[in-house]
Amino acid sequence: MASQKGGTLDKNNKYDRQLRLWGDHGQSALETARVCLINASATGTEILKNLILPGIGSFTILDGNKVEGEDVGNNFFLTVDSIGKSRAQVATELLSELNEDVSGDFLEENVDDLLQKNPAFFTSFTTVIATQLPERTLLDLGRVLWTANIPLLVCRCYGFIGYLRVVIKEHTIIESHPDNFHEDLRLDYPFQGLKDYCDSLNLDTMEKKAHSHTPWLVLLYKYLQIWEEQHGGKMPKNYKEKMAFKDLIKGGVRKNEHGVPEEEENFDEAVKSVNSSLHATGIPSDIKALFEDPSCLKLNSESKNFWVMVRALKEFTETDGNGFLPLRGSIPDMTADSERYIQLQTVYREQAELDSVAVAGHVHALLHNIGRIVSCLSRVESFPRKPAAAIVLGLDPRLAPAVVLILCKNGGQTPLETAVRKTKIRDFNIATGSSFLLFCVFISASVAKISSMHRTYA
Amino acid sequence: METDWSGRWDHLQKIVERGGPFAHPDFEPSPEILSFLKETCKILVIGAGGLGCELLKDLALMGFRDIHVIDMDTIDVSNLNRQFLFRARDVGKAKADVAAAFINARVPGCKVTPHYAKIQDFDDSFYRDFHIVVCGLDSIIARRWMNGMLISLLTYEDGELDQSSLIPMVDGGTEGFKGNARVILPGITASGVGIDGDDPKHIQWILEKSQERANEYNISGITYRLTQGVVKRIMPAVASTNAVIAASCATETFKIATSCCLPLNNYMNFNDTNGVYTYTFEAERLEGCLACSNKPQTMNFSETDKLQDIITYLQENASLQMKAPGVTTSMGGKNKTLYMQTVKSIEAKTRDNLKLSLKELGLEDGQELYVADVTTPNTLTFQLRIATTMDNS
After folding, report:
1. What are phi and psi of B10, to 5 degrees?
2. Which pathway features in its UniProt record (chain B) (predicted)?
């Protein structure tokens, strides 16, 4: 630990618990966020607190009010000796203490005046959060930000009631860090490299030690072949069949000279993995929906990189991928000798790289078709071993193994006219207001959500 | 410092001095409610971590002034991304002390009393004094112990619960983008029922070892983070989820203390991994839940089983998960210690019993075993059901 540079390590330590949720790439996205808070109300400072702690890039508080006695009563980031001073300034000072990596600024000015005088002020941020703002002002503000395509989050609290609205045209996420995903093993449709590797191993002729250290993935492959031969080429599907398949695997455990089965941990693992590993490989429905999105089908010179990527993926699945997404390329840990584990890992990784290069080919062709310069072409060529998708978008390739992590999109909502719906987005930087006068407000710098109230009080 | 400046309680007064359509049916608005919060109500917060920091802030702003906080931990760098009462200069200090000092300085009139200790360090005379206990714990064992303690404080008269002996517990928990909050009335509603992987040197050693192996075999992508995550089950944690759950817990505490609104009934689940999802349901009390009742549990063994098998059962049974159970019984009117790990001299004297069968120990079918463990403040009674070898065959 001591050998590493202090600064980087410090951040790694400080942010450790959240990096486990959104990774280094999510963190760097968060660190580029420039957030504007309108009104340093109790709700407002709570939201900022929860954004400053995980480390947004910067914040600016816009508030033309002076601190009053009642503000100090419910706002943790105002003090009694600040009564009469600028609320924006006092809150900025106390919030800035929370994280030295975040730079804070304030502007003591009336929102309506500023909207008249200098609307460009608002479009210099990546996100604007408005609390306790009257509707008239909101409509003007909403128009400015909608045109500039900058997310606006609107929150208001009253007693035990509160709401949050999200005004945003489209928000796309690459690397959505799914909570629980299946390993991408392709046992049902083994690719050539996997077939070749598994076929090169012969369980019957192995030494005892090699037998008990053959990776369970190979065991599953082998016993699936036997099963499929007996069942017209079909995988075990229901519970009963899976139980029978497990018995088939168990029957392969070596026996000693007294006919007693040896302890072979890899066979135990193979049996345990049957349920989780034999799911059918396919394209998830949410990604299929993206493939049919007009933004994907009708690319033009203005299309976002995201949609170019989606289209490239779609074309991959229709051609090289034979109906599947690119291989993820990672395998789980398992009992095995290091040599064969590495070999197996390499088999998967090499296929993933092939797939990535194919996707990159589609990306290049698409970019060419819509008349865009392929600036990343040379990079793809010089780093052929890294997942192409990641390179195209400038991500950390380790964090975006192939392209399957991609992709979600919210419904486009018109400014301030539609009630907020639950967005189908997951993102990393959610913050929450919590204190007296607000019960549940959930916000993120780029996307936000609304919660339901348990009980209301008027 | 001025503690009651003009306007300070304006918002709270609107809640407790006015009625309304959503108020609790029995709610009677009164200025005395605020006085009760400020002058009488005594709250215990357990844990000064992610939830604890938020809870202290919320409760202090809601008018509570006599707050105690217990935490046995010191501040680590990895706490700073959410435990907002701590700064880099506080690393290594006791969480309870730093948190209490911060709140006391920021919220005039609020007096938070810190206890840098374990909950097991205090007895019933300490816990009896509180009106409400709020838990922000990341340990199931501690949570269960606390619940057990509050149940043990209940007194009954002619079979009727003495309401004044009941101390409500509001409990919160978070992991990543998920969390829950619940209101537990000990003995009435359902109860809520590790490896040292935190030592950086230890983790670093494992990291170095795995890197050696990785280099040897060309494995990529091994990091400190990954190593640590594998060695101990580290919970991902963010400020926002803690804030949501703590806000909910503080609101429930306020509602119980003031009766202004009906409390949560009784378990709220929160998940904003994908959109925002909350769901509230009434968790029912389990018959035979160890934490909820003092009824003797039954254990089934055969007479050839060894005492060690009982100890293993106590440690591995999913609903028990004891750490170092001590087992005593009563034989011929005398108490007999069968095995006790926690006291060295007794451990030495009773160690040989582990290898003896239940028959050899003279234990009979129906015999009661009394089990003490750090996971529960009370001694649990088990009734031993012993199958003879014949029954077994």
Report:
1. -50, -50
2. Protein modification; protein neddylation
What is the chain A residue with the closest CA to B226? A20
> Measured between CB atoms, does B147 come within 8 Å of chain A?
no
> Which ranges of chain B would DSSP assign to H, the alpha helix?
10-16, 31-35, 50-61, 95-106, 124-127, 140-152, 200-217, 224-231, 239-258, 307-316, 344-350, 389-392
Q: Which residues of A touch B107 (CB under 8 A)?
A: 76
- Residue B157 near residue B73 (C-beta atoms within 8 A): no
ipTM of the complex: 0.77
Å between B19 CA and nearest CA of chain A: 8
Q: Which tokens is B169 given? A: 């517990």
Residue A3 contacts by C-beta under 8 Å, 6 or more apart in sequence? Answer: none
Q: How big is the A-B interface in CB pairs under 8 Å?
A: 194
Verify whether the Cβ–Cβ distance B247 to A430 is below 8 Å: no
Q: What is the pLDDT of residues A104-155, one digit of tens each?
A: 999 999 999 999 999 999 999 999 999 989 989 999 999 999 999 898 988 8
Q: For residue A228, is pLDDT > 70?
A: yes
Yes or no: say if B19 and B30 are a contact pair by the CB < 8 Å rule.
Answer: no
Q: Does residue B273 belong to the interface with chain A, where contact is any CB pair within 8 Å?
A: yes
Residues of chain A in contact with residue B58, where contact means CB-CB under 8 angstroms, are: 434-436
Facing B272 at nearest CB: one of A17, A55, A442: A442
CB contact under 8 A, B21 and A458: yes
Q: How far is CA A344 from CA A215, A334, A348, A398, in A?
A: 8, 11, 7, 18
Q: How far is CA B336 from the centre of its chain?
A: 31
SS3 percent helix, strand, coil of chain B, rounded to 5, is 35, 20, 40
Q: Which two tokens stand for residue B261?
A: 């609104």
Partner residue opposite B81 with nearest CB, options A18, A426, A431:
A18
C-alpha distances out from residue B266 to A210, B165, B189, Å? 55, 20, 8
CB contact under 8 Å between A179 and B273, yes or no, is yes
- State how far the Cα of B71 lies from the Cα of B50, in Å rounded to an integer: 12
Q: Rounded distance, CA A419 to CA A402, Å?
A: 36
Give the length of chain A: 458
- Inspect the interface and report whether the beta carbons of B106 and A76 lie closer than 8 Å: yes
Q: Are B323 and B340 in contact (CB under 8 A)?
A: no
Beta-bridge partner residues of B299: B384
Chain A neighbors of B180, CB-CB under 8 A: none
Closest among A73, A36, A64 to A51, alpha carbons compared: A36
Distance of alpha carbon B157 from alpha carbon B165, whole angstroms? 11
Q: Tokens 């190979």 label which residue?
A: A218
Q: Find the closest chain A residue to B266 by CA distance.
A: A454
Q: In this complex, do B22 and A457 lie within 8 Å of one another by their Cβ atoms?
A: yes
Distance CA A242, CA A2 (A): 50
The nearest alpha carbon in chain B to A445 belongs to: B240
Which ranges of chain B have pLDDT less than 50? 193-194, 196-203, 205-206, 218-226, 228-232, 391-393
For residue A199, pLDDT over 90 is answered with yes
Residues B304 and B357: beta-carbon distance below 8 Å: yes
**Contact check, Cβ <8 Å, B238/A10:** no
Nearest CA in chain A to B261: A457
